[in-house]
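Fold it.
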Amino acid sequence: MYIDKQNTFFYKQAVTANVSSDVVMNGNGGDAEKSLWLVIRLDKDVTGTPLFNLYTSNTENIANAVLLHSITLPTNSKAGTKVAVRLASGAKKYLKLNANNMTAGTITSFLTPDVRLV
């Protein structure tokens, strides 16, 4: 599996409460002809109803952020659950992912140019 560290929000991150990722830089922002894929994978069963919100902003501190994606998984989703979606149009220079509504579990999330590699 190929996961680029610079495009990773969470890597086998244990969650016991709401958590925010580090900021990931999206080049100079803007829309590519073929957008990257946002991949969210559950590495261990989660407790709760996972909600992932991907925000984008022109500033590294994510000021004036815009919600780009909101993904909700089924309650108490099991390890191995994976979601892959193309980044929506409107991505700016910086991205940040929030993982909410889980009290246990382990998650991985990243951007990739080809979901066949994961």
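The CA atoms of residues 11 and 108 lie 4 Å apart.
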